[in-house]
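Researcher: Next entry in the queue.
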Amino acid sequence: MNAQSTPRISADGTVLHLLLGEAETRFHAIWLRDNALDADTRDPGNGQRLITLGDLPDTVTLTDARLAEGQLHITFQPEGKTCAFPLRWLADHTYDTSAPAPLLTKNVTPWDSAMAPPSADLTALQTNDDTRRDWLASIRRYGFAKVTGMTPREGGLFDIVDLFGYVRETNYGRLFEVRTEVNPTNLAYTGLGLQAHTDNPYRDPVPTLQVLACLENSATGGENMVVDGFAAALRLRDENPAGFDLLAGYPMRFAYTGSAGVALHSRRPMIELSPDGTLQSIRFNARSAAPCTDVPFDKMADWYAAYRRLSDIIDDTAQEVHFKLAPGEAFIVDNTRVLHARKGYSGAGNRWLQGCYADKDGLLSTLAALEAQDA
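Model: Structure for this entry, 375 residues:
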């Protein structure tokens, strides 16, 4: 990327004006100094800062700015220090914009029942970086993906987590069984159908990824379903913006006390937005809902109306993708976005799945490293 004019420094030296492409962009002197890329400011090996703000002068100004070979060279005062910034790096990190933050980030695409589940073979994922990168990118974009070609064995789902990160152990253990039990501690262990939901909303933070792998599935019924919680939230916002704001603006309460020695509670909104308004997560699980006491009396009826409508949208078959796992198949969901469910199944035959949790930071880190190889 080439700048198209000479960079300009404001009269007081605190702001840099730079033309990047077709638009003029401004950077504060203190921002540039804090984010300098030189070896005295950042470790050349790991990129971590070697300074704190307390190491910088109280007032930082610029006295020189020039372009050379695709880089901007800036001199900071009172240090008399000159640092170089690649123009591409500046373009990627510009913050001088009046546009509101998008509701969805650029790598997220909402979907409905027309969605074809992304899928990849486990051996290919383990041996081919391109396959693994594309599969991980699908999870980032759509919030779920399938895995085929597994050996249906106990603990085999850990091979999926090993592709990108680590198992997150909970009170359910490193893995949990999903099959019919007598006197179950959780409704997931019965043959009942389950409404689409996110897992463990009573934790803070919630496990951000869930893996479910099939070892046996000869029972009648029991198809898996997934619903895009972001798409459901967007549909609610289009139909009822005020209701969307109520669900995003007040916390829901969730609780789980179904096992001895366990009493989990959380207080978070069903639709969670970042401070700048980007959709961040969905928490929806009727089985784990606790009495909501944080909505004002005069807003409670409208809050419930929005809650009911979101529930109806989630139950709409137009929103769901369904599939029946065969032994040796698995799927992974972003538990902050995608709701999962299952149809009811009969007592005839066997249905045995194993599940575990992991965290999205490992997945996104592995994906970023793979994408950097191609840059």
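Model: The radius of gyration is 25 Å.
Researcher: Noted, moving on.
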